[in-house]
Amino acid sequence: MGSKDQKSEVRSQKSNPPESPHTPLCKRGAEGDFKGGEGGFVATRDAYGDALLELGKKRNDVVVLDADLSCSTKTIKFAKSFPERFFNMGVAEQDMIGTASGLSLTGKLPFASTFAIFETGRAWDQIRQTICYSNLNVKLVATHSGITVGEDGASHQALEDVALMRVIANMTVIVPADGNETKQVVHAIADYYGPVYVRLGRSKVPSVMPDDYQFQRGKAYTFHTGKDVNIVAMGIMVSIALDAAKILKQDGIDAGVINMSTVKPLDHEQLLNAAKACGLIITAEEHSIIGGLGSAVSEFLSEKHPVQIIRVGIRDIFGCSGKPEELLKLYGLTADDIVQKIRESLLS
What we know:
single chain, 7-stranded mixed sheet, Rossmann fold, globular
């Protein structure tokens, strides 16, 4: 027999039926923004919300699904303007993926969003069996990835999502470096047919991509090719890698930086050029070093042009609760950490 409180809860739920599926709810995870900087800083999830709104105005076939987190994923921007094309699936990520798949088969272009930990973990079977096996045109855009989720802690810090998505056939995996690139990614994948996973963050990040930058699926962007070392980074680690390169320049070390925003398929040409230009490659990711960018780079170069590779990322551990800046320091993901590893390697 249930307790009196449990029975009261059931009665309350029955007397208050769920709202329309087109109503965005902001109950689970409706936290405030991490205030990570002033002008020139924007969270990639905010850029995603803006891009979705732009896309919705251009294309009537775009539909958006969310798992009760639209205020946090910023799909609420689309929901408010196009309520008839927005579907709040509730706390039912697997159902969301199945519904998105069905919508794609009717000719719609679905964008399905929630936190990365829920989208890639809880719904992995549906993503593999329903979307990727049938090569459906569904776009999975997940926010709140990595340790910079911050105080939400290990249960909400997806450190394995790139690995989980990269291993599935037909899946494209993209990790934008800033807001400008995120907007371009959203528009670009809308014109590409096939499953795509886009990894976004909660925290505000610096704008690093040049004004004339044009995103292309499968193409990396090289800021500079170094003669001593080249840093291959994704997401938030691109700005950190650029900071590291500036520090190294003061020591007379020529360090290049590559934004490998498309983790799958990798840009083999630029990666090979970087490896041939020096004897040391550093990979930098706010993700586990197992199965992520470091693994992808190592797999390719070990076969085509073996060089020394040092992977900067989360070791074989879970995250913890804390402020984003503190966690980046705790897990060795700062510019100083990258600089130290490069100095140690070049001096050894």
